Each structure stands twice: as C-alpha cells, then as structure tokens.
Inverse folding.
C-alpha cells in the first residue's frame, strides 16, 4: 500500500503521524508532502528564501526519517495558496509518480486558508491525475522538471515528465476529522506508534517554542482512544470522503 499525506505547512502532519508511522512499520510506502515551506513562521525572522528552504528540507528529512517515509516540498507560497488548477496540477503529477492508494489531508472547513486550499487541490488532483492529456499537458513544449525539494527520486528532465502514466486506480481520500463533515468517521489505533508522534511533536515544539507539550499531545490521542472503545489506548481521527463505508459481513 502507498499512502501520501498532503499538508500545507511543516507540523500539519502531527495529526496523522502515528498512523503514517504504523503503516511505514508494516512495510507500506509513505510520502509526506507539504505544499508550502511555511516560510512566514516568525521563527525565520528576515532569513532569505534559500535559508528557509534549507531549514525546512532539514525538518522534512528529520520527520520522514523518524517514521520511515519519503518527503516532498512544493513552494506554493505560505498563506498565498489559491486552490487553483495550476497548484492541483503540480500535485497531480506527483500522484502520477508516487501512485498513492490513499491520501490524508486537512478537513474542508479549517480556518486557515492554506489548509482549506491544500485539501481542495489534494482532492482535485485525483481527477486531474486520471486524465493522460492533463497530467502530461505541456502546451507543445517540454514541461520543466519539478524542483528537487524532497527525498524521493525526482524526474530528471521535461522529457521524462511527458511520459507520466495517468493514475486511474481508486484513491481513498482521508481528511482530519471535523464535526461538520458529512462523511463517515474512521479511527485508527496508534497505541504502538504514539511515541513516534510524540517525538515529532516535540521536534516542532522545540522549533516553534510551543506551550503545547508532549503530555498534552498524548492526552489528546488518549481521548480519541477512549472514544474508540475498550483496549484502544491512543488513536487518531479521520473522515473518509465517501457516501458510506463499505459493507461488512456482521455488525461489530
């Protein structure tokens, strides 16, 4: 199984890091994707864009290594995302390369516009990636290679990009739980990987100087675990963008 987590800023992935670590430990391929560098974080002060890129690449590499994942950064502009076709097409080409079976992203109603726009393009890109003429469109000229801002082996030339194979396999689309969502809820038991999540949370805690602590992180996951029922110590909470869950042989 291949899972891609698509978020706007480094640290957004904390809400699913236990799930990603659990899948990676099982042997699944996992890729963390950020649509921006989060360059407006006040911790960067007046640092140049090149310096921000360097630091964020280090952040992405650290988190990815911690959970056994690949990573990729886009540079769509912190708090400047529009949710438009050009942004979705960049992601669609990455879908066509990595070929995820499942995507995890933000909910549709988060207050931060980059979070909403990232969820929008993550969903739109599924359709764009299905259409060969779109995912390979170049206006008659070779497409430039994607910038190398991640860990995965990237395309080497515009010639390579033109040969992308459309992704037509089903992609399950998971989003962070939101009470207003009309979609079915999914809870994942992360009791075995909650400490990996706590370490990632602590990594960002040290960078951002958050008041939020590792103990508070664990308690939040424990609260979801209690919702899931007996025997689930820690869990993460999502919705699945379908009209209903698949049929099961018996009621639980």
């Amino acid at each position: 199984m291949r899972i891609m987590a698509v978020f706007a800023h480094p640290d957004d992935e904390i809400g699913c890091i236990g799930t990603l670590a659990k899948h990676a430990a099982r042997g699944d391929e996992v890729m963390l994707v950020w649509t921006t560098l989060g360059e407006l974080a006040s911790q960067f002060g007046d640092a140049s864009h090149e310096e921000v890129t360097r630091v964020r690449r280090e952040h992405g590499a650290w988190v990815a290594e911690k959970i056994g994942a690949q990573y990729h950064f886009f540079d769509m502009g912190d708090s400047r995302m529009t949710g438009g076709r050009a942004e979705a097409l960049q992601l669609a080409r990455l879908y066509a390369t990595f070929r995820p079976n499942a995507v995890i992203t933000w909910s549709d109603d988060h207050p931060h516009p980059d979070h909403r726009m990232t969820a929008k393009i993550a969903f739109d890109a599924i359709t764009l990636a299905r259409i060969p003429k779109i995912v390979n469109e170049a206006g008659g000229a070779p497409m430039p290679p994607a910038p190398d801002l991640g860990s995965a082996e990237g395309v080497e030339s515009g010639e390579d990009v033109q040969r992308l194979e459309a992704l037509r396999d089903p992609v399950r689309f998971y989003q962070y739980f939101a009470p207003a969502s009309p979609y079915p809820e999914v809870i994942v038991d992360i009791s075995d990987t909650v400490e990996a999540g706590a370490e990632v949370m602590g990594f960002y805690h040290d960078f951002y100087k958050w008041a939020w602590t590792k103990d508070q992180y664990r308690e939040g996951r424990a609260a979801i675990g209690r919702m899931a029922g007996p025997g689930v110590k820690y869990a993460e909470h999502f919705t699945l963008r379908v009209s209903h869950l698949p049929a099961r042989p018996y009621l639980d």
Summary: The longest helix spans residues 49-67.
